[in-house]
Automatic annotation (TrEMBL):
<keyword id="KW-0805">Transcription regulation</keyword>
<dbReference type="InterPro" id="IPR011006">
    <property type="entry name" value="CheY-like_superfamily"/>
</dbReference>
<feature type="domain" description="Response regulatory">
    <location>
        <begin position="6"/>
        <end position="122"/>
    </location>
</feature>
<dbReference type="GO" id="GO:0003677">
    <property type="term" value="F:DNA binding"/>
</dbReference>
<dbReference type="InterPro" id="IPR001789">
    <property type="entry name" value="Sig_transdc_resp-reg_receiver"/>
</dbReference>
<dbReference type="InterPro" id="IPR000792">
    <property type="entry name" value="Tscrpt_reg_LuxR_C"/>
</dbReference>
<dbReference type="GO" id="GO:0006355">
    <property type="term" value="P:regulation of DNA-templated transcription"/>
</dbReference>
<dbReference type="InterPro" id="IPR058245">
    <property type="entry name" value="NreC/VraR/RcsB-like_REC"/>
</dbReference>
<dbReference type="Pfam" id="PF00196">
    <property type="entry name" value="GerE"/>
</dbReference>
<dbReference type="Pfam" id="PF00072">
    <property type="entry name" value="Response_reg"/>
</dbReference>
<keyword id="KW-0597">Phosphoprotein</keyword>
<dbReference type="InterPro" id="IPR016032">
    <property type="entry name" value="Sig_transdc_resp-reg_C-effctor"/>
</dbReference>
<feature type="domain" description="HTH luxR-type">
    <location>
        <begin position="147"/>
        <end position="212"/>
    </location>
</feature>
<feature type="modified residue" description="4-aspartylphosphate">
    <location>
        <position position="57"/>
    </location>
</feature>
<dbReference type="InterPro" id="IPR039420">
    <property type="entry name" value="WalR-like"/>
</dbReference>
<protein>
    <submittedName>
        <fullName>DNA-binding response regulator</fullName>
    </submittedName>
</protein>
<keyword id="KW-0238">DNA-binding</keyword>
């Protein structure tokens, strides 16, 4: 029998806590080990019950989710964190990812995606709801306008990867950013080198600079 995934919930709205509890109780592999309505002492509480995953709102009284994540990053994470928020601002998403969150789930689709999010994160893969993934992609493609500036037609995905390569992201980091494997990133990199007729990664960076894909 598989061990249950222990889950701790933190949100300042009891009705949302109750809603998540109702959904999570439908899965025999999940066990909710506690919940909180604010961010006070949340790290100690989560670690004390040995939770595997913390699902946490960003906007909470006393201490918000960002403060909790910052303390986690200093003390060391005792569990994985999925941020639950009504905000889908790209800068906020980037901030929580940098602070070590394993996922970002929009409240508007939490009911239908929460089980998938928990299962994905528990298996070691970051999870972001579809609207958040769209925000990330849209922020990097300029709605396809970049393609008109290039000497060689590139797909939006190739433009995304070229930008990140030029910003010194590693293959692993690019994969995490775009939700693809590192081997897929490497395949795209090799294809770009061939397609743009350059010798190496440095050539890709020069190409990106020349065509205003990144700031010099």
């Amino acid at each position: 029998m598989e061990p249950k995934i222990k889950i701790y919930l933190a949100d300042d709205h009891q009705v949302l806590i109750d809603g998540m509890l109702a959904v999570l109780k439908t899965n025999a592999l999940f066990e909710v080990v506690g919940h909180a309505l604010n961010g006070e002492d949340i790290i100690e509480k989560v670690c004390a019950v040995k939770a595997d995953i913390l699902i946490m709102d960003i906007n909470m009284p006393i201490r918000d989710g960002i403060e909790v994540l910052k303390e986690f990053s200093v003390k060391g994470y005792c569990c994985k964190v999925i941020v639950l928020s009504s905000y889908d601002d790209y800068k906020l998403v980037k901030e929580v990812i940098k602070l070590g969150a394993s996922g970002y789930l929009s409240k508007e689709c939490a009911g239908e995606n929460i089980i998938e999010a928990i299962t994905t994160v528990a298996n070691g893969t970051p999870y972001y709801s579809q609207n958040i993934r769209d925000k990330i992609v849209n922020s990097m493609t300029n709605n396809g306008d970049s393609n008109s500036m290039l000497g060689v037609p590139l797909t939006n995905r190739e433009i995304e990867i070229l930008k990140l390569i030029s910003q010194e992201y590693s293959g692993k980091e690019i994969g995490e950013e775009l939700f693809i494997s590192a081997s897929t990133v490497e395949t795209h990199r090799k294809n770009l080198i061939k397609k743009l007729n350059v010798k190496n990664t440095i050539g890709l960076v020069k190409y990106a600079l020349k065509h205003n894909l990144i700031n010099p």
